[in-house]
Specification:
Blueprint: H1 2-24, H2 36-68, H3 81-95, E1 100-101, E2 104-105, H4 106-129, H5 134-158, H6 161-171, H7 184-199, H8 201-207, H9 211-216, H10 221-243, H11 249-261, H12 265-289, H13 298-314
Antiparallel strand pairs: 1-2
Helix pairs in contact: 1-2, 1-12, 2-7, 2-10, 2-11, 2-12, 3-4, 3-5, 3-6, 4-5, 4-10, 7-10, 11-12, 12-13
């Protein structure tokens, strides 16, 4: 236990150092500029916080789904949440001209509504079948992803070129937060959901061994699975609504954390969350630095890294 605590402290220290560096380092910051405080506080800090919120969420939910579905490549987007959010944003960009309502940007609202649509459909399917069978949920998620992708492509094909470009850009994922205002609601949702997920840490340890073992040890499998699914999905929907779909962090981070901390969810959950935040900060820095002054969408960076990680996982 002392070794685990020491590792967590080191990981937290590493995260703090990378977080500070991600704010201070970058091509858009000239130390001869009078606007340095504004750049750091109004641009860099919200962006870094967005990376932390997104990385923690994807990693935490990835760890939950890998236990829940007993599948090492289960990810936060397995159940079509990203597809639903993409459809919501596509619908908004193509059919609505309003840029906001009562000071709120509407694209995150439509994205979250699309994600909730996906969650609702999955929940309805498993409710009709009266069990939370992992295979049923994964298959339903795959079908939903295909359907949502088809609808996005259809609307994108029918809309004008400017809207098509905006849709494509959003689906690549971005951490370019528009100030702190867009982070308040997702942050509250993520914090509350993270606390709820951690309260199920012992159930997750048993669920990863199978339903029979879990039930024999006193776990209410149906209740725990349903609650973890709903809480994780809402958490993902809140984050995807502000970042767009950013893949692979939810697969990579739990595996990296498990290689150092083991599969005990008491330590794996916080370790995965911190690891996800670190990975997202690094990918964000790469997206800004590789082709400066051109910024690469962070979703492209995570996809490239994810491909290499998958090859290692297959080996």
């Amino acid at each position: 236990m002392k070794v685990i605590n020491a590792k967590l402290i080191f990981l937290a220290f590493l995260f703090s150092a990378i977080f500070i560096l991600s704010i201070l380092i970058g091509g858009d910051l000239s130390f001869g500029s009078k606007g340095i405080p504004e750049i750091l506080y109004m641009i860099r800090l919200p962006r870094a916080l967005t990376a932390v919120i997104a990385g923690c969420t994807y990693a935490l939910c990835g760890a939950v789904f890998q236990s829940l579905f007993r599948n090492p490549i289960a990810s936060p987007f397995t159940l079509g949440t990203a597809g639903g959010a993409s459809l919501g944003v596509t619908f908004y960009i193509s059919f609505f001209s309003s840029t906001g309502f009562l000071g709120l940007a509407l694209s995150p609202v439509f994205a979250f509504a699309g994600a909730l649509l996906s969650i609702s459909v999955i929940y309805m399917i498993v409710t009709i079948k009266k069990n939370f069978n992992p295979n049923t949920m994964i298959l339903a998620g795959v079908v939903l992803n295909f359907f949502f992708s088809g609808m996005v492509l259809f609307i994108q094909y029918m809309t004008n070129q400017a809207n098509a470009v905006r849709i494509t850009r959003w689906t690549m994922g971005s951490l370019d937060a528009s100030g702190f205002d867009s982070l308040y609601i997702p942050s509250v949702i993520v914090i509350i959901c993270s606390i709820i997920i951690y309260s199920y840490r012992d159930d997750l340890n048993l669920l990863s061994m199978g339903e029979d073992i879990s039930a024999s040890r006193g776990v209410d499998v149906k209740n725990s699975s349903r609650n973890l699914f709903l809480v994780s999905s809402i958490m993902i929907g809140a984050v995807v609504s502000i970042t767009g779909p950013i893949g692979f962090i939810g697969i990579i981070a739990p595996h990296l954390a498990a290689s150092f901390f083991g599969r005990n969810y008491r330590s794996l959950l916080p370790a995965a969350a911190i690891t996800g935040a670190i990975l997202m900060l690094i990918c964000d820095f790469a997206s800004r630095a590789v082709l400066w002054p051109v910024e690469i969408p962070v979703g492209i960076i995570t996809a490239i890294i994810g491909a290499f990680f998958f090859m290692r996982l297959l080996r």
